[in-house]
């Protein structure tokens, strides 16, 4: 799933490519992808893109005051093209759910496809008058990279810290991968209870949130959209690396599976050398 750093890089790329262009057409190849009906997608045609911004993991394209909002979910992606095919999309013909054609002054030749792999469909597009008309945006917690962000006031909850970091209503933009990386950097167990963290642990967690996310944003910045997912994988220290060597201490990275997902951690760095119990059949982080 794309998280804050990858979405931020996509937004910067799209803002550079799209601002000032005119929307020539919005083509839908999936009945399910568009979650709104008023205003219709056709209302965007002929309007100019004013800019592209981010809200957590949501991409927000401002089109002369209307907003195209995209959430890529678990298996979605945005694929830019400098030379779109002339043929229109056909319903259900591929993994392309929607296409936006743009005219930068030389015809509707550029634009992007929104794609989704797999059978579980979570990709979502909205056409709204204001971003907060999207329920997911209206419910977002604070952005961890925003000026004045403070983590400490958000920790007074009796919930596992891994779950807290991933909860978009508490902190916007962090998902499964970067929560693993943050907890590894902070030397904290993913099962630690947020409200029970002592001052030193809170300080380490605050530092790790800022360091890991800012480092990832800097690494992703400027990379083409089609390289961002592979680049993310290569930068992970523990996430997705079960059975490999921890780059900090040399111990073996372990895994806990749960509710259609998994987390990875280093027992030496994070749990005092003790393996965590696998909770495959539990409701952990559901």
From TrEMBL:
Its cofactor is Zn(2+). It comes from the Bacteria. It catalyses: Hydrolysis of DNA containing ring-opened 7-methylguanine residues, releasing 2,6-diamino-4-hydroxy-5-(N-methyl)formamidopyrimidine. One of its GO terms (biological process) is base-excision repair. One of its GO terms (molecular function) is 8-oxo-7,8-dihydroguanine DNA N-glycosylase activity. Gene3D superfamilies: 1.10.8.50, MutM-like, N-terminal (3.20.190.10). CDD domains: BaFpgNei_N_1 (cd08973). Residues 237-271 form the FPG-type domain. PANTHER family: FORMAMIDOPYRIMIDINE-DNA GLYCOSYLASE. This is Fpg/Nei family DNA glycosylase.
């Amino acid at each position: 799933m794309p998280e804050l750093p990858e979405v931020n890089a996509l937004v910067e790329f799209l803002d550079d490519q799209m601002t000032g262009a005119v929307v020539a057409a919005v083509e839908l190849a999936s009945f399910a992808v568009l979650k709104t009906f008023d205003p219709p997608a056709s209302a965007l045609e002929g309007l100019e893109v004013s800019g592209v911004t981010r809200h957590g993991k949501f991409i927000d394209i401002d089109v002369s005051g209307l907003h195209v909002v995209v959430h890529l979910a678990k298996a979605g992606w945005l694929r830019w093209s400098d030379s779109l095919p002339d043929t229109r999309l056909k319903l259900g013909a591929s993994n392309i759910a929607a296409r936006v054609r743009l005219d930068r002054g030389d015809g509707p030749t550029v634009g992007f496809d929104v794609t989704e792999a797999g059978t579980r469909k979570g990709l979502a597009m909205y056409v709204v008058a204001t971003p907060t008309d999207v329920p997911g945006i209206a419910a977002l917690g604070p952005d961890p990279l925003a000026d004045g962000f403070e983590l400490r006031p958000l920790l007074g909850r009796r919930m596992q810290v891994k779950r807290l970091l991933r909860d978009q209503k508490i902190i916007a933009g962090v998902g499964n991968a970067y929560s693993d990386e943050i907890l590894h950097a902070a030397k904290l167990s993913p099962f630690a209870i947020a409200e029970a963290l002592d001052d030193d642990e809170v300080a380490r967690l605050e530092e790790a949130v800022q360091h890991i996310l800012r480092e990832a944003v800097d690494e992703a910045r400027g990379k083409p959209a089609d390289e961002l997912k592979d680049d993310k994988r290569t930068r992970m220290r523990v996430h997705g690396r079960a059975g490999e060597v921890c780059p900090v201490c040399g111990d073996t990275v372990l895994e806990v599976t749960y509710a259609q997902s998994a987390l990875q951690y280093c027992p030496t760095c994070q749990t005092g050398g003790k393996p965590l119990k696998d909770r495959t059949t539990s409701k952990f982080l559901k």
